[in-house]
Amino acid sequence: MENEQIEKTTAIRLNQLTVAYEAQPVLWNVSVNIPKGRLTAIVGPNGAGKSTLIKSLINLIKPVAGEVDFIFEQTKDENYGNNKNLVAYVPQNGSVDWDFPTTVLDVVVMGRYGHIGWFKRPKKKDKALANEMLLKVGMADFKDKQISQLSGGQRQRVFLARALVQEAEIYLMDEPFQGVDAQTEKIIIQLLKELKTEGKTIVVVHHDLQTVPEYFDEVILINRELIGSGPVETTFTKELIAKTYRQNQTKPWEEE
Amino acid sequence: MDVLSTLFFDYTFQVVVFGSSILGLLSGVIGSFAVLRKQSLLGDAVSHAALPGICLAFILTSNKQMEILLLGALVSGLLATWLIMVIVKHSKVKFDSALALTTAVFFGLGLVLLTFIQKSPNSNQAGLEKFIFGQSSTLLERDVTIMFLVGIVILIVVGIFWKEFKLLAFDQSYATSIGLPVYWMNSLLATLTVIVIVMGLQSVGVILMSSLLIGPAVAARQWTNHLSIMVGLAAFFGCISGLIGTVISSLGRQIPTGPTIVLVISSIVLISMLFSPNRGIIWKMIKNNQRKKEFASQLKKGG
To answer: Which residue is closest to A172 within chain B, CA to CA?
Structure first.
C-alpha cells in the first residue's frame, strides 16, 4: 500500500546509479526518488557530478551500474529510450556554436522534431507553437534574428522555448541560470513554476545556494555520492550543506 | 578566344567540364555540413587515406579500371574515418591528433605502395601518380554518368534528412535527447562525405580534395545566416570553381586540374572574406570607422 503511494508520486527513480569516466567514478551509488510535479534542485560543488547526473538519466553518459526508471502519466512504459519525447532536456547554453547559420524561430522549432518524425517538414502548427513559446519567454520580437546576435540570457530563453514546444512531462535543465541577466532569471523561474502547476516535473542543476529556498520545493545534495534529498525545508540545512561542500571529500569507493 | 570556342564544342571537353561541375556542386553541399560540424579536416584525412586503397586495388587486380581503383579508395577512406572515430572514442587522444595520426599513416603507406608500383616492371603501371594532383582529362563519359547518378542520390538523401542533419550539426546532445539515432546519422553523413571525396580524387587529387570540400562552404557562410541559402550558395561556388578550374587547366598543357580548381575556389573565399556584408573584413572596418566618427561627434556635442 505504502509502496504504491510512492510509485504514484515519483517521476524518476534512481537505483544505485554509478557513473565513471575511465576508471575514475564520478558518481557513486546514487539512489533517490525524484518527486512528480515538483521543482527539484540538484546542488553540489564544482565537479560533484551534477551535470553528469542529469546526462546519465537520459543516456548521454552511460552509467557503469544502476538503473533509472521514469514514471510517466501517458504510458506505463518506464524505459526512457522508448519515451524520449516525454523528457525535455535543456543543455548548458555554452554547449553549442551560436554562430550557426539559423534563426531563433528555427532553433525553437527543433524542439518539435521528435513529434514531426522522419521525412516530414515542420508544419504551420509547429511554427505556431514555437511562436507561442517565444512569446512566453519574452523573445517574440527576436524570432527572425540570427542566433549569434543574442545575449547569454536570451540564448537560455531560446533553449527553454525549444524545450517547451516539446510538450514533455519531465524537464531536465543543466545550469539554466548560469551567466544570465536578472530579467531572464525571473522569466525562467516564473515559467518553471507555471509548468509545475500544470503537473510537470522539473529538475534543475543549480549552483546558487542563496536562491534555493526561494525557487525550489525539493533539493538533492550531491558530492559524488548522495548527501541528502527531500523537501527544501527539511533537507537544505546548514549541516547537510556543509557536508556537501566539505573540502577533501573522502572517496566513497575507496572506503571499506 | 578561338581556342576557347573550339574547346567548348569539343565533346570530350564538355564531358570533363560537366564532371568537374557536378563534383564542385556536391562538395559544396556536403562540405557545408562538414564545416558547420567542425569536421573540415576529416575530408583531408579521408582523401589522403584513399591513396593506399587505390594502390592496393591496383596491386591486387593489376587492373587500372577507374571503378576498381575508386572502390579501393572508398574502402580505405571509410576505414580511416572509422579508425578516427574509434581512436577518439576509446582513447584519450583528441579528434585533431587522431586525424593527423591517421592521415600520416595512411598517406605514408600510400606513397610507399605507389613507389613500389612505379618500380615494378609492370608496363601497365603508369598513371597512378595522377591521383596525387588530379587530372580531369582522364574523366570518361562513363565516369561522369556515374558521378551524375550518385550525385542525384546524394542530393536526395540530404533533402530527406535535411532537418535531422541540421539538428545534428547544431546540437548533437539535444538531438540525442529527442531520440535521433545520432550514431547512424553521423555514419550516414560521414559516408556521404567519403563518397564525394572519392569522386573527386580523379580530377582534383588526394592532396587538394579537402579544399574543394571546405572552400565553397566557408565562402558561402560569409554571405548568409540561413543554412539553406548557405548550402545552395556553396553548391554554386563549388560548381563554378569546378567549371572555371577545368577550363583553365585544359587551355594550357599539362596543368593539373586539382590545383587550378583550388586556386579558383580560394579566390572566391578571399573575396567573400574581404567584401561580404556584415561578416567581411572590409565591411567591418568601414562600420567601425563610421561608429568611431559618430561617437567622436557625439562627445563633441556633449562636451
So the answer is: B177
